[in-house]
Amino acid sequence: MTDQSPTAAHFEARLRRIGDERYHDKHPFHHLLHSGGCTMDQVQAWVINRYYYQSRIPMKDAAFLSRLDDPKMRRIWRSRIEDHDGTDTREGGIARWLRLAEGVGLDPDYVASGVGILPATRFAVDAYVRFVRDQPLLPAVASSLTELFAPKIHSERIAGLLEHYDFANPDTIAYFQHRLTEAPKDVAFGLQWVLDHAVTQADQDAAANALIFKTEVLWAQLDALWSAYVEPGRIPPGAWRPGEGQAAGAKA
């Protein structure tokens, strides 16, 4: 890692403050989930809607990859797609998420179909894909830096799910376990790239605003879940309703 000037160190601290203030580990839905307070209907709603985000991450990264002129950076970034899509010899995060879906009593094919996704989830995730596809490279990379804060929430989630929910076991929570090593690898490169390329105040502002945007994408998804499935329980037309998409033999 290259030496950081005081300006770069100050900028990194600014990025980390954004996570301290805005990352979605502070959302009440995650507090409810990790403490064991969610009903199974609420857990299933979370699994269904979060799948849409998971499924779009490799599409976002593929769109970004197509814009890169540097072969070295393409090689580095390509691993993000493989982490989610898998390879011929290695399972990816999407397959692990579908195992979680089956573990909570959902039909994985139903979850993968995208039927029943909340409108706000779809709009927020699609906005993120467009952002990374269309924005300059610096903010596009900076938007991925929520990974700085992901290991903490994954550790809390693993502990909380294992303590409070019968469906949780090493197989069903494998997605989160793998992200404990995948996310730090990705962010080590992404953070240094942003620090190296955000050389002006305008650059730093653009990168910081991109990270804020990404935290809002994550927060909006949880707001939608809370409104539809926690309180006051306004499920939009066409969105998943408890009892739909159950796995064969699962209790509705």
TrEMBL record:
Catalytic activity: 6-(2-amino-2-carboxyethyl)-7,8-dioxo-1,2,3,4,7,8-hexahydroquinoline-2,4-dicarboxylate + 3 O2 = pyrroloquinoline quinone + 2 H2O2 + 2 H2O + H(+)
E.C. number: 1.3.3.11
Record pathway: Cofactor biosynthesis; pyrroloquinoline quinone biosynthesis
An example Gene Ontology biological process: pyrroloquinoline quinone biosynthetic process
Keyword Oxidoreductase: yes
All copies of domain Thiaminase-2/PQQC, residue ranges: 13-223
SUPFAM superfamilies reported in the protein's UniProt record: Heme oxygenase-like (SSF48613)
A single GO molecular function term of this UniProt record: pyrroloquinoline-quinone synthase activity
Entry keyword set: Oxidoreductase, PQQ biosynthesis
Catalytic class of the enzyme: oxidoreductase
Family: Belongs to the PqqC family.
Primary role: Ring cyclization and eight-electron oxidation of 3a-(2-amino-2-carboxyethyl)-4,5-dioxo-4,5,6,7,8,9-hexahydroquinoline-7,9-dicarboxylic-acid to PQQ.
Listed name of the protein: Pyrroloquinoline-quinone synthase
Originating organism: Meridianimarinicoccus roseus
